Amino acid sequence: MSLLTLLPFIVLIGAMFLMTRSAKKKQQQAVDMRNQMQPGSGIRTIGGIYATVKEVNEDTVLVDAGPGVELLFAKNAIGAVLSDDEYNRVVHGIEHDLKSDADLVPDDASSLTETDDSAADAGADDKSVDLGKKDAADEPAGDDAQADDTSAAESKTDAEPKKTDGGSEAK
Predict the structure, then answer these.
(1) Rg (alpha carbons) of the chain, rounded to whole number
(2) Which of 41, 46, 88, 116 could form a disulfide with 79 if both were Cys (CB 3.0 to 4.6 A apart)?
């Protein structure tokens, strides 16, 4: 057998090795994270429950999810061990990383818009543009055609049925 025929199999085996290696690495990181849990740590379960660890056993974790609410979880059900700042931010809404009040974004955008009067004056010089659609039949051929065009438009509107608000006849 030549090396060229074995090359696809070698590439396939290499790809499988790399995929299983990264999966094992993620799994080992999760096990290490769960082993670092201590009483008092804030956690998030895989179901999205935020709680504080009360007791850590070999395969289970006893957590305090609120006043008088103690839950027993398997260690595998712990999705993340949170830092104190992150746990307080999520559970209690406490922010610790505010730099200063000057860096905050205002509630309205009026202070962010341009207040220069020159921009308003430049907009006043613009002519209004008619965006209405014109048909070729509506185009005037000359000065005399303009007078005929207005009478044709009036007769066209008279011929169209008038819209009503759905009077009593429709009932």
Answers:
(1) 37
(2) 46
What are 95's two structure tokens? 């922010």
CA–CA separation, 54 and 43 (whole Å): 11
Distance CA 43, CA 79 (A): 8
Give the DSSP H/E element, type plus range, for residue 64.
strand 60-66
Q: Are 93 and 86 in contact (CB under 8 A)?
A: no
Query: How far apart are the C-alpha atoms of 129 and 109, rounded to whole Å?
Result: 29
User: Torsion angle of alpha carbons 134, 138, 142, 146, nearest 10°?
Assistant: -110
Residue 58 backbone phi and psi in degrees, to 5 = -65, -45
User: Are 61 and 78 within 8 A, CB to CB?
Assistant: yes
The total number of residues written for the chain in this structure: 171
Q: Which residues pair with 66 in a beta bridge?
A: 69
Bridge-based pairing state of the strands 42-45 and 50-56: antiparallel
